[in-house]
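Retro notes
What went well: the complex prediction finally ran end to end.
Inputs used:
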Amino acid sequence: MYVQLSLLILFLPLLGFMILIFKGKKLSGKADWLATGLLSLALVFSLVLLVLKLTGSPDETLTYVFNWIVFTDAMLVGSLAIEFGIMIDNLTVIMLVVVTLVSTLVHLYSMMYMKGDKHYERYFAYLGLFSFSMLGIILTHNLLLMYIFWELVGISSYLLIGFYYEKKSATNAANKAFIVNRIGDFGMFIGIMILFAGFSTFSFGALFDSIAAGQLPFGSEGWLTASGLLIFCGAVGKSAQFPLHVWLPDAMEGPTPVSALIHAATMVAAGVYLVARMFPMLTEDALLIIAYTGAFTALIAASIAVTQYDIKKVLAYSTISQLGYMIMALGVGAFTAGIMHLITHAAFKAGLFLGAGSIIYAMHNVLHDQHDHKTDAQDIRNMGGLKSKMPVTYWTFVIFTLAISGVPLTSGFLSKDEILAGTMAFSSLNGHWLLPLIGLTVAGLTAFYMFRLLILTFHGKPAKESILNGIKESPKLMTIPLMVLAALSLFFFYSINPFGAPGGWFYSVIERPMSIVPGNLQPAGHELFQDAVKSVHAMVMTLSVLIAAAGILFAFTVYQWKRVSADQLAEKAGVFYKGSVNHWYFDKYYNQLFVDGTLAVARILHWFDVNIIDGIVNGTSVMAKGVARLSKWIDTNGIDGLVNLTAWVSQGSGKQLSKIQTGRVQTYLVYVAFSFIVFILLFNRI
Amino acid sequence: METTLQWLASPGLPHFLIISAMLFGLGLMAVLSKRNVVMVLMGVELILNSANINFIAFSRFTDFSLNGQMIGLFVIIIAAAEAAVALAIILNIYNRFKTINLDEVNLLKG
Amino acid sequence: MEFHLLGIGILTWIVFLPIAGMVIVLLLPDHNRQAIRWTAAVVTGAQVILAGILYGTFDRSMTGINNADSFQFIEQFNWISVEAVPWFGKIEINYFLGIDGLSILMIILSSIIGLVGVISSWNIEKMTKGYFALYLLLLTGMMGVFVSLDFFLFFIFWEVMLLPMYFLIGIWGGPRREYAAIKFFLYTFAGGVLMLLVMLALYFSVAYVNPAGESVHTFNLLHMMNPDYYVDGSILSGVDTTWRYVAWLALFISFAIKIPLFPFHTWLPDAHVEAPTPISVILAGVLLKLGTYGLLRISFPVFPDGTNYFMFLMAILGMISIIYGAFCAMAQDDFKKLIAYSSISHMGIVVLGIAAMNTQGMVGGVLQMFNHGIITAVLFLAVGVLYDRTHTRGLNDFGGIATQMPRYTGIAMIGMFAALGLPGFNGFVSELFSFLGAFEAFRWVTIISVSGIILTAGYILWTVQRVYLGALPEKHKNLKDLTLREMFAFIPLIILIVLLGIYPAPAIELMNVSLSHLVEIVTGGAP
Amino acid sequence: MVENILHSISHFFPEIVIVITLCVIIIADLFVKKKSHTTGWILFCGVALAGFFVFLQTGWNESVFYNMVAVDPFASFFKILVVIISLFVILFSMKSGELDEYKVRISEYYMLLAGMILGMFLMVGSTNLLLMYLAFEMTSISSYVLTGFTKRSEKSAEASMKYIIYGAVSSGIFIYGISLLIGITGEMDIYGINAILVSGIDQPLILSISVLMIIVGLGFKLAIVPFHFWAPDVYEGAPITIAAFLAVASKFAAFAMLIRFFTVSFMGAGGIGELGVWQTLEGMNWNLVLAVTAALAMIVGNLTALRQDNIKRMLAYSSIAHAGYILMGLVVLTNEGTAAILIYTFMYLFMNLGAFYVAMLFSNQLKTESIEEYKGLGYRAPFVSVSLTVFLVALTGFPPTAGFIAKLYIFGSAVSAGWFWLVTIAGITTVISLFYYIRVVRNMFLYRPDEAVLPLQFDLASRLILLFLLVPTLLLGIYFTPVIEFARHSIKMFGV
Amino acid sequence: MELTTLLFYLFALVTVSAATKMVLSKNIVHSAFALMFTLIGIAALYVLLYADFLAATQLLVYVGGILILILFGVMLTSQGHSFSSTTVTVNFVPAMVLSVTVAAILIYAFAATEWTLTEPVERTDTVYDLGMLLMGNYILPFIVVGILLLVAIIGAILMSTRMAAVTGKSSNSLR
């Protein structure tokens, strides 16, 4: 039952993809409905699955497995089977719902947003492909399959980012996204190889069992930590953690609904999901590193977001920093909080993007009508005062903003302050006080820049009256998803008590799994941690609320009431301002270091290939003669020069030898007599 | 000293052989050094003769007896034949090149 | 396993059908191009069918490798047999064909590629007759190598391929064809001479006593794999002797040239760039595999000691080829050169995999041979399609092809992504297992090699961007999308790419047993 | 005495037939009208008949004329080779364009050819130093003249002069060496010499000198480095037919003579041992000498050939190189090596004759022998060019042509005797050789001729002859059992 | 020191010195005559070796035949009209060195070897025995040499006779 349902959920989107990619054009505009229909069907199924699972068998994990490949009588391991299969537990079903839900909403939204695009069908096809692979990631029960779907979401995001492939920037962004992810996957792949080499299986269950049984890859704890961290590299790539966060902002080149679905709600969260899946086998050091990575990411992303003007860029950076939050949460062991934040964030960040989308849509239409192609439809400096013109968008946007800033009564508040509590507890246990500090700072920053965004976009005077007059509220198809998401961004979906998630159903179904790594590598025990959380909870809550409030207030003073001029602030900030504006120069230096570096190496090696190796091949004396001359010589002598191995030498010696052939009999005879004597003297044994 | 004198006093096989060796060397010399083809030919004759001296010396001093002379006979005949043909060819050359200097007849080389 | 047609074994059929085709082609009148093409098509088609029969009737459970009884479709009779004389034993050369899990896949590959090649060379107008005659001869050579179990036979087929190749590149090739052709020829011939020497050394060291009680020197590979047949005191007798190592190296070089492995690879780019599209397809699709096939068929089982001794060297060379090829590919502006270098990189993976000496690695390697054959075929066809239309291969002369030729772009993309090792396409599976296997044997080498996948992603995506994406330049505004014929060339390959990507088991179960056995032979110690 | 002579004569039909043919030609020359190849046909029939008698002699193994000539399988093998070659060369001569200008003198040409054939017959058979010398001279003298046969060409004249001077000197050295050998052993037939050597005389120095002088003499005929210098010039100057004849027939005859001389006179008491026959000659390590010369021949021949533009000259160098390969079999004078040599010679015959023949056909039509002029011939004369390609490929030693089998066995014998460095050199030089052979092919096929030029026409007869050479070259590459059997049974010499 | 010894040295001196003269003289005719003396000297040595028939043949064939032939050759091919045609020597030094070395090696070898000598038999005349041998053991060489002479004659004729000039020099066509 579960299995069939989940398989249905998994393959419905794929079906959509198939149909659209091959018969898309034939469907004559019905393509969108088909795709959306299939997706919503999947949504229904996953809701059913959710209910069944949570009511039926909340605390058992079902797996369904079949052999993909079997190596009979392999050396040492006997018969080695590579399994594929699905695993269903509470986390899975919840994630299923989240993904299908957001995906469906985005489908709906896109039907309006993308209307009239010349690759309309293909767009929905790609969406289908993405949903399929995302669901795959969620459902899989083993690392290999995880990796496979991992790559597949990568490729579908590549396709969607590069959807406007005529734009160079778009394709660049797509390449960047894919390659940066590849770097992460490289680590992940090695991690998987280590585990496979150690336990010759891929499936989580088997892995954890054998680790729990005390085996270690290559018998060393170092390798265990390493494998954990290497697999985390995959997460770093996908979830755009430092140092691989650079691709996400560029990924905004894709259509806005895509950004909402992939680069805010679901795919980027896959990294978090991966860490959650691997959580039991992560050693203490690994977790610590993970936590710091997350924290650091959150901080720098937030600091960058403060100064951005492109509406989508701001959201992108905020996404990064929120993801950092989740990673940090998992790192410190606030497992449930992290997951919860993943879900709440999915809702309100998707909402934010869709809202931004509807703004851009409106702006775009206006600009298009006014034949204005200079002004950037995404630059918040060109907006302002939209509040009056597009109320629905505005109010939903407000809700989302409140949620992300962690204001009470919103979902964001619940999860975020659990995370902060977690970090606080963690530091209280083993004195890593930097983590909560960063957490709080980021909370403040978030509140600030989100309200900055809100104010600049909707409040105040418009940059151009002409534009403002043209603006219209977006059509129903686009506003409905917004409302739905806004609703989902309120607290009561997650727990009855607006000030404490732990009481809610969510905490009851998602529990932090037991760590199975050898004792000396275990992070702090669960109970210990829970108590610590309880003790710090109230204090953290107040702190966070205050900080959020401060942030919001500051935002209003600067941008609404203009008490403080932003420019002066920038002046004051100096270095920080510059750094933040330029994304702390990551892209710049990455480009110089890696891209140009690689290309340079490539060119050098190619030169080496053409000249040196061929040179060597073209005969030893070449080295002396000099490469340049060689290649010239090749071209001039054409084929005669190219008795490869021996050409140079043999040609030369051949020439010398034919010099001996003087054509004078007597010279010949001299040679004969000479060689006669030589033979006599040389080979005589006496 | 005594022995040397004695050795000189009774000319035996080695003496003849040494003469033939000398002639061989001289013949070779002529062959290698003379521009004129005819001279080269004479050198060849000399070489053949030196060989002949060997044969006949052997026929005298070893139990090879008359066979040596026999072979000598044949060699002389061969020499004659060869000389005839050679001279004919040289004439031909002269008709073509108007010279019989070896180093001036040198189209084929390399 | 027996299968006869008109009393002639199926392997003989599959090998010599092209020769028959060649004769027919030669008899046909020059101007009747259509007939010539169709003959070639029919012949290669028949080959594919035969290969299909082989696949169907092949017994997955029989090992082969070094055990004559467990080979299938065996055909063996004395071809050359000279009576013994007092001072020398009987001389015997067998016409000995047979296949096992190692060769079956290669046979299928070369038959398919052969057919595809014919389809894609449909528009050869220059001396069509000569072209197809040589082409068919080439096919015979390839098939022959894959089925022959007698070193002498193997060598003959091996060398038979050179001359047609020389002409096919040299006459129908691009501007610098002479250079490329002679370069290819000399390299491979040099390798061939090395192989010849080793072959002779083996021949004189191996002798078995036949029923008549006389000791017979033989080229039979299976006998060469059996330590008991080595004459005491002969050069190659014993284990871990210097001569055996030397022989192994000589053999290895002659194969490495064909693979091609760094640093013997420089002939490949030139050959590819100059060769006409179908020939590039054949070259990359099948000829390169001959190298690795030779390693597996001859070097490994005949010289297990040498193989063990040099295993690490192989791995290192494989690693270098992977990284090095990828980097060189990145520096190319010529589409074909780029693919050529990528071939070097991918064949490096094969070598790494088989050097691992465990089943996963071995299977991965051989599967990679097959997959890479299919994938590069697609890529070269893709280049060919563009080249036919625009007569340029410069990566920077293109852009935005996707808008103009969507169907073509889709197919080419699949090829590209398969080459990039994207899951769901066959390239991924084989690379995965090659690396998994290799990792167990050589940890760091493999880790470095895996970084190659990043580079690969780099140059592939860059190429995709430069050629297919972006704005469409004016001059290409009127390109036609794929014709039906071209589609026919592509479709089977694409299907294979996807099928094997999703469910490779059918391919793997073919060779599983044989390869595990091979691994046991090698790791199980010296002969 | 008389009966001995009579008995001997009964074993001597082939030679006698040749002599008779010679006389018949001389007489016929007086009657038949000039400018016709009648005499050629006479010679053809004569040689064929001789061949028939040789064929009858298969399996005979005795020595006649007071141990002067051996009639044994070994001799018969080479006689058959000579017959085949001669038949082909006679046919070539009838097709040759350059000879046509000398129709008036063509019968002399055939007379001399007959003389040469007779000389070779004697060379391969003779077991007596004197007779060896005579046979040697017989072959040489006629070949000197034949080389200069096309009198009006300076090249030809010069070639003949160089040839005769070089030859005269070498034969002088040869006979001098013989004289020394005879002197030291007191015997003039090789069995006697062998007996003496086995019984053991301790004169290594004089022995070495004499043998070396004999090698110089024969080396001249074999054109092995460093005695090869005459070959390129002579081949280039001589009429192609004669060049072919020299390159194949007289070379083989000399090889036969060399092999027989060494084998018989220097084999140890127990016949031919594992180490070959050299143990009775402790004066020098002979197989090293021969190995060095072989290596030199391969290197020099192949490398120098790279530079040549005249195809005759190129083939000359290639034949020098091939002499080197054959010599590899001689280095180890075991039965195996000898068998390998026989196989090689048999295979080599067809491909080399073929190459020369095609060169002749082309020069008939194009009046050129320059390889550069061959550009585009592949399209003007497909069949001929393809066959030339086959011959050259065979010379390179590619399967599945006869050349490969030849190389296979020669290399094999060397490998089995453990001469690895020699084989390695052979391998490398083979690779080098590929280049100059393929260059011809490339010129023929890789250049399109401009449309103006007409395709070349060859009459049926010449194409047929070509076919006769082409078929064996390919066939023997695929099925060569008979050749090997033949060779392995032909290594039997009288008294071994 | 009996007569034969004296004669031996005398003739040896004549032979060798004449040969040297022949080699070193610049004038071809002089060398021709020097050669004649050499040959006569050799003939005399034959006589000392009890090879009277050989000596006679030597005189007849060489002095009477070959030498005259050579002189004819000299005259027919003498460049220009000046009869005293001089011949220059090429690569003199290597020739000198080589030939001296060869001679030295030979002489050393001869001296170093002890030959299996037998007591010289005093022969009255050798003609009869030679005849018997010629008809007996040497029958084959005898015939062969006859044929060889025949061939040589044919060749000589072929080479020496001038041919009627045919139009179109073939030599051009071969360039």
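What we learned: Residues 22 and 31 of chain B are 14 Å apart (CA to CA).
What to try next: split runs per interface for comparison.
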